Amino acid sequence: MSVQPISRRTVLRGLGVTMALPFLDAMMPRGGAAARAATAVGGGAAGKAAAAAPTRMAMVYIPNGCWMPDFTPAQLGAGFQLTPTLAPLAKVREHLTVLSGLALDAARAKGDGPGDHARSAAAFLTGIHPYKTAGNNIRLGISLDQFAAQKIGDRTRFPSLELGCDKGETAGQCDSGYSCAYTSNISWRSESQPMPKEMDPRALFDRLFGGGGDPAARAAEARRARYRKSILDTVMEDSRDLNRQLGRSDQDKLDEFTSSIREIEKRIEKAAADQATAPIPDMARPEAIPKELGEHMKLMCDLTVMAWRMDLTRITTLMVAREGSNRAYRWLGVTEGHHSLSHHGRKKEKVDAIKKIDLYHMQTLAYFLEKLKATREGTSNLLDRSMILIGSGIGDGDRHNHDELPILMAGRANGAITPGKHVRFPRGTPLCNLYLSMLTAMGVPTDRFGDSTGPLSGMA
């Protein structure tokens, strides 16, 4: 059959609902195999192909540091062996870059006394030392994600997405005289404006796939709730019309895409039902939706994958929990809070519990990375098109140190990163040097960000 090219901005419509499509082969610019395979950023045919397959980035924040002996590989280069904490990432090992020696100087006290947790989250994506206050006169600076969003965010419906599995507080004191705004946010639009996180998968689903504030969209959503219909039912006729214009490969992709959204919606509905009938858990700040953190994280990751596939956004942040979180991981048999355990004093039972928590985080993030790898996009996959930063602003939670941070990158960023290795930098190398490299990969190069001294070598 003759397949006509379609626009990257093609959408499905019905009853006030507008849904963007995933990247399809029919959206690739014509011009032969060379143009179809090109991914380098630049002019001409290669640049047009790159524009059809954008680079995405996600920053995932894990609170309270890690047990570093089980995180850091002993070997450097491509021959590194996965450590006990990183073992769940075996299926995406060739997409990983372990970065050792990086530091977050802005999280140090600098005369302000206690408050390492607040400073760690606040400085993680800004590279700026927060002004110590518990009042409304907070002062920090723009974060990596928002710097990029201000440059390229107008290319997508959502300039960025800020997600979390723990709402936290935005006012009051949370850490030794520091505002809760510092412990609860890693994304900052300006020095006084943190970006609020979305932690409800249902609300995120409706935001991504619904019609927003449009009255017809609200009516469509009300009908769906009343008749317990999937939001996809309102666009299936449009989907069938489009399907007749596509080749077999794209037809399969569209079918898999719509089936994935149905599955996510079913899981969100189940989580809501479980939450409605569940007793109040005996744990610190029981705000997780659903009850178990891993399922909550997976839903947020699934929705991120969908948003990227539909090119609704290219920039995402995800806080596993606010910094200093004392969540108890009871489903792992860990009844003491995470923050309390991080002050382990090298006691075996506490260290063993921290190891369980670290492993659990990596198991859940492996789900995200494997899903990106399995999601085809043109001649490649979403993991190759993306870069995912995973880390913490604290190294060892017991020492509250801000050097030798647990920093992991995944993905190839459309060829800007050559992964599959462990790279060690001189001790104290600014974490913000990595951000210079990431911004260049996103097409928004800058000479300085935070406390950077120059882009990292050894990434390409």
What can you see in these coordinates?
The chain is an alpha/beta fold. The chain has two domains: 56-199 and 288-460, Alkaline Phosphatase, subunit A (3-Layer(aba) Sandwich), CATH 3.40.720; 202-286, no CATH class. The chain contains 14 helices and 15 strands. Strands 5-10-3-13-14-4-15 form a seven-stranded mixed beta sheet, sandwiched between helices. A two-stranded antiparallel ribbon has the order 1-2. The model is unreliable at 31-51 and 277-288 (pLDDT under 50).
Question: What would you say the CATH architecture of the largest domain is?
Answer: 3-Layer(aba) Sandwich
CATH fold-level topology of the largest domain: Alkaline Phosphatase, subunit A
The radius of gyration is 22 Å
Instruction: Return the string of H and E elements.
Output: EEHHEEHHEEEHEEHHHHHEHHEEHEEEH
In terms of per-residue confidence, which ranges show pLDDT below 50 for 5 or more consecutive residues? 31-51, 277-288
**Largest sheet entry:** 7 strands, mixed
- Structural class by secondary-structure content: alpha/beta
Average pLDDT, rounded to a whole number, is 84
The first-level CATH class of the largest domain is given as: Alpha Beta
Features:
14 helices; 2 domains; globular; 7-stranded mixed β-sheet; 460 residues; alpha/beta
Short description:
With 460 residues, the protein is of the alpha/beta class. The protein has helices at 32-37, 44-52, 116-124, 144-152, 180-184, 201-209, 215-227, 236-243, 248-277, 293-309, 338-342, 348-374, 382-385, 431-441; strands spanning 11-14, 17-20, 56-61, 96-103, 161-164, 173-175, 178-179, 188-190, 193-194, 315-319, 376-377, 380-381, 386-391, 407-410, 421-430. It has a seven-stranded mixed β-sheet with strand order 5-10-3-13-14-4-15, sandwiched between helices.
